[in-house]
Q: What sequence folds into this?
């Protein structure tokens, strides 16, 4: 008997019919001889509706109470799913994140998992039950407060439980058939990837691919937990994310690693330019310490060559749009220490990234990437590279055209039917 952890996103359990469909799939896994642990997200747009409700009541809700509110969505889903499974003649028990032993730090709204102690889950499994766990939530180690894990929290919950329970696989069910070479909502001829390495998936996730979140993939890589990304709306094989290029379910058939894994894009970032920074040691350190002290994550960084006449330079960096106001405030407070002239803020940008472990041994990838953007008439504002990724910042209006142009240029377009998006949200 194997142990399988399954995670179902909000679009999979958006209504009563969806919950009953998911319950049948879970029962099928149980009938196949597996012990089954299920992590479930809130139904449909429940979390967004709770956020809107909170903002109507308070423009700046307290973090602790905000978390108490948001965790209600997953608790509703887990209870309804357990009821649906029992209606099919199988035993199921539902657990909140704290009951499941998901222990976090004390940072509300974006807590990180410290440990998982799934004693109650093991007991439920030993008694022959299917365990249903509310995703996206845990309990703080020190104050025992309810916490939420932030964006992609249910995926991270599932992988963390899979690691703690030594599961054979963590299945992430969404509304697309797997990981594609580009967002199928933008590129209709995007191809489904059969297998992708943890490293390439991490780059795609951090570059804007929404089917899996960066934290989830990083956790899986750390504990070597294979992830199977598939659709809850079909019975098709999905995408395997693992350390070894083996196509699961087909013996030892090797899957050749492609030179390019895919093209990702992100329009959720903004750009800040610090204008007129003295070009001397320590200035960049002061800038980014101020940003770090405000608990803001940054992405791309570019510093211009200083002007000979003035000895001043400009430093640009990208960050989440939601953190823009906080970053500007933090830099303004540090203006005297830094000595810059002004700040420029631009939230009409987009990032396009080409990802593939094969590019480091294949000359010409960079040239082809920039030629494709040039042919599409796309202007580049920032450039960032790693061994397996090239990212550029462009105008937000150019992103979709740029993604399609790059996807075609590298021969990633599919010759078969267009990719299917069953639920419409990608989650």
A:
């Amino acid at each position: 008997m194997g142990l399988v952890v399954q995670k179902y996103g909000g679009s999979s359990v958006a209504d009563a019919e969806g919950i009953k469909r998911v319950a049948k799939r879970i029962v099928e896994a149980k009938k196949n001889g597996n012990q089954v642990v299920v992590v479930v997200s809130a139904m449909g747009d429940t979390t967004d509706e709770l956020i809107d409700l909170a903002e109507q009541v308070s423009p700046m809700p307290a973090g602790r109470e905000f978390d108490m509110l948001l965790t209600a969505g997953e608790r509703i889903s887990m209870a309804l799913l357990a009821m649906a499974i029992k209606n099919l003649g199988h035993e199921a028990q539902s657990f909140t994140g704290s009951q499941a032993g998901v222990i976090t730090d004390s940072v509300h709204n974006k807590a990180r998992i410290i440990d998982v102690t799934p004693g109650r889950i093991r007991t439920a499994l030993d008694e022959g039950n299917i365990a249903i766990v509310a995703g996206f939530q845990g309990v703080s180690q020190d104050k025992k407060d309810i916490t939420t894990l932030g964006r992609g929290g249910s995926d991270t919950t599932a992988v963390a439980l899979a690691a703690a329970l030594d599961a054979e696989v963590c299945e992430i069910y969404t509304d697309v058939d797997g990981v594609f070479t580009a967002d199928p909502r933008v590129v209709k001829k995007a191809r489904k990837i059969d297998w992708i390495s943890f490293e390439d998936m991490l780059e795609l996730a951090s570059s804007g691919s929404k089917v899996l979140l960066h934290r989830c993939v990083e956790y899986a890589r750390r504990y070597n937990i294979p992830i199977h990304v598939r659709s809850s709306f079909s019975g098709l094989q999905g995408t395997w994310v693992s350390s070894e290029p083996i196509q699961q379910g087909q013996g030892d058939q090797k899957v050749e690693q492609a030179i390019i894994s895919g093209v990702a894009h992100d329009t959720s970032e903004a750009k800040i330019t610090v204008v007129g920074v003295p070009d001397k040691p320590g200035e960049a350190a002061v800038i980014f310490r101020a940003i770090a002290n405000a608990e803001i994550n940054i992405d791309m960084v570019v510093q211009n060559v200083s002007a000979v006449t003035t000895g001043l330079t400009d430093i640009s960096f990208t960050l989440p749009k939601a953190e823009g106001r906080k970053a500007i405030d933090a830099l303004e407070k540090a203006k005297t220490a830094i000595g810059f002239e002004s700040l420029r803020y631009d939230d009409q940008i987009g990032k396009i990234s080409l990802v593939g472990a094969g590019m480091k041994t294949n000359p010409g990838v960079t040239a082809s990437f920039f030629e494709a953007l040039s042919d599409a008439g796309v202007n580049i504002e920032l450039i960032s590279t790693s061994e397996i990724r090239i990212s550029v910042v462009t105008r937000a209006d150019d992103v979709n055209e740029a993604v399609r142009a790059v996807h075609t240029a590298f021969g990633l377009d599919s010759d078969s039917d267009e990719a299917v998006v069953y639920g419409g949200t990608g989650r």
